[in-house]
Amino acid sequence: MAVVVGLTVTIIGWILILWLNLSLLKGKVHRWRNDLVPLFVFSIGSINPGKASLWTQQGYSQAEAQIIVRQQLLCLLELPIGFLLACILSILSVR
Predict the structure, then answer these.
(1) CA-CA-CA-CA torsion sign (73, 75, 78, 79)
(2) What is the Cα–Cα distance from 80 to 95, expressed in whole angstroms?
């Protein structure tokens, strides 16, 4: 039972973290195209110096590309925190 609770909380937490970061991003860039959400999600884990060029190829300025990359890094840092919180909640739910 604890595994199911932990997995459910983890998945819901990750969805909320992604939704929150995308919502914050929409307020920071001039125009956010919703068709780029999969690109945002799938390129979170790739950390390389030329990552901003991926977003400039999609029509964003260099400053906006840096904002998007920073938001992805923030999202990458928040995901393990969400996992740890889910583990704590699942342990507490067993008691």
Answers:
(1) negative
(2) 23
Residue 95 CA, chain-centre distance (Å), reads 31
Query: In this structure, how many other beta carbons lie within 10 angstroms of the beta carbon of residue 76?
Result: 15
Q: Is residue 68 a contact partner of residue 25, using CB atoms and an 8 Å limit?
A: yes
For residues 80 and 31, what is the distance between their CA atoms, to the nearest angstrom?
Answer: 29
How many Å apart are CA 5 and CA 20, to the nearest integer? 22
Banded pLDDT at 43 (limits 50, 70, 90): confident
Task: Record the tokens describing residue 10, joined without a space.
Answer: 């983890």
Nearest to 21 by CA among 89, 84, 91, 72: 72
4 pLDDT exceeds 80? no
Which of 47, 34, 36, 54 lies closest to 75, judged by CA? 47
Q: What predicted TM-score, i.e. pTM, was given to this entire model?
A: 0.81
Domain locations in the chain? 35-87
